Amino acid sequence: MNRWVLLLLMGVMSPGCALLQQSEALGVEERLGKAGFRMEKAVPAGATAYVLEGTEKSGVVTYRYVDPRRGVVFLGTAQQRARYEEITVHEKAKQSAELAQITPANRRTVGPIALAP
């Protein structure tokens, strides 16, 4: 019986995990676009998916981020990579500030989940 419950939970949770990964990938891709990375319809063979990685050729570093689900690759320079990092830090700081404003007095609780006003 416990085995069936575990299998059922895994079946229910797996799509949720995939949605979270897809959502995170879209957030990364949006920030890459803001930073000036260009998007191409291609997936290089042997490329690592969902990882921003750099390669050096003739002294020039190029960064790429591959999304095989969408069939695209984002390509950028070291300057664009630095801009991407700035955007990411700024957005995470903004999210942290917004979360810090949620206090026990202004949150609503629904079961174990606290919701912002």
Question: What does this 3D model show about the protein?
Answer:
This protein has two helices and six strands, in the order αββββαββ. It is α+β, with helices and mostly antiparallel strands. It has one domain. The strands form two sheets. Strands 1-4-3-2 form a four-stranded antiparallel beta sheet. A two-stranded antiparallel sheet has the order 5-6.
Summarize this structure as a short list of keywords or feature phrases.
117 residues; alpha+beta; four-stranded antiparallel beta sheet; two-stranded antiparallel sheet
Mean pLDDT: 77
- Global shape: elongated
- The DSSP helix count reads 2
Category from helices, strands and their pairing = alpha+beta
Number of strands: 6
Gyration radius from CA atoms, angstroms: 19 Å
Give the number of domains: 1
Q: Main β-sheet: number of strands, strand sense, barrel status?
A: 4 strands, antiparallel
Strand order of the largest sheet: 1-4-3-2
Strand content: 15-25%
Distance between the termini: 41 Å
- In percent, how helical is the residue content? 40-55%
